[in-house]
Amino acid sequence: MTVEAVLEGIPMPVMLIDNDSRIKLANAAASEMFNRNLAGASVVSLLRQAPVLAVIDASLNAAQEGQARFLLSGLSGENTYICRANPLPDGGAMLSFEDQTQQEDSEMMRRDFVANISHELRTPLTSLMGFIETLQGPARGDVDAQDRFLTIMDREAQRMNRMVSDLLSLARVEVDERIRPRDQVDLASVLRSVVATLEGKLSDASVTVSTDALGGSFSILGDRDQLTQLFLNLIENAIKYGGTGKTIHIGVENLDRDLALRQPAVRVDIRDEGEGIDAIHLPRLTERFYRVDDHRSRDQGGTGLGLAIAKHIVSRHRGRLKITSEQGVGSCFSVFFPRAE
């Protein structure tokens, strides 16, 4: 077996360099990584990052193994690699590149998540501590102030409770995401139940629901509790942001084939008549703690986690979520599920 064949059998980008730091051999993965023919190229001009070049120099001149972080800009953004340099017995070195982009992105998401949680919980907690201090001091004997402050404290405590509940829901959904549900569920039945549950909120907001499409049978393999949570979230959002006195339109239909799912599907549309959402926000709506209007969302009792939970529920059901919106007309949240055979 030739050296070239061995290199091609290695899935990660690998190249062999001589003592002059020129590439003698490179596998297809390495050529694809740099989008060029690498034979004869100088790694000094190719890599151009001091920590990586220092590791290569130590490998060539002191026969030392080493590794360094290497950043490569591409069409989809910046990718992160671990470049390892291993000296060869007959001179030169072998360079390999392990893609760490996904791990670094995950770590960044984890750090951002922790920072966001800390911020979201600190705000109501700081408010509570401030009111407690006031009640223990200047407002100790002021009954009117006490009632007013206690009302605000109750609201902030409820907000913290909703946040913790949504965090627990998100954690449960993420744990279950890889396990596909196997129970047959009729979506029309779930939607009718959700609308009945929300009758009080609908009445308070003077919002009506068009449910003409819920008369048929629309079966999928699903988790009824999670599907209920999904549609409670989407319809509650439509109530909050659709506007007083407006109508929420719920549509359900069986599709012979959904192009994205590549199989028969059930489509559910939740459409409001609200102000709509600027297109710039649509790709980020399912991110944790992302809010289009931060102040309004907090006033409405939103935690910023609802659509993140919805996305994971849809993913667990092997479906897809599509969000469309037109400013001044309204927004439509469409969910596509594989249809039960």
From TrEMBL:
Residues 116-341 form the Histidine kinase domain. This is histidine kinase. Its main location: membrane. Keywords: ATP-binding, Cell membrane, Kinase, Membrane, Nucleotide-binding, Phosphoprotein, Transferase, Two-component regulatory system. It holds the Pfam family HisKA. GO terms for cellular component: plasma membrane. InterPro entries: BphY/WalK/GraS-like (IPR050351), HATPase_C_sf (IPR036890), HATPase_dom (IPR003594), His_kinase_dom (IPR005467), HisK_dim/P_dom (IPR003661), HisK_dim/P_sf (IPR036097), PAS (IPR000014), PAS-like_dom_sf (IPR035965). One of its GO terms (biological process) is cellular response to phosphate starvation. It is an enzyme of class 2 (transferase). GO terms for molecular function: ATP binding; phosphoprotein phosphatase activity; phosphorelay sensor kinase activity. Its EC number is 2.7.13.3. Signal peptide: none annotated. It is found in: Cell membrane. It catalyses: ATP + protein L-histidine = ADP + protein N-phospho-L-histidine.
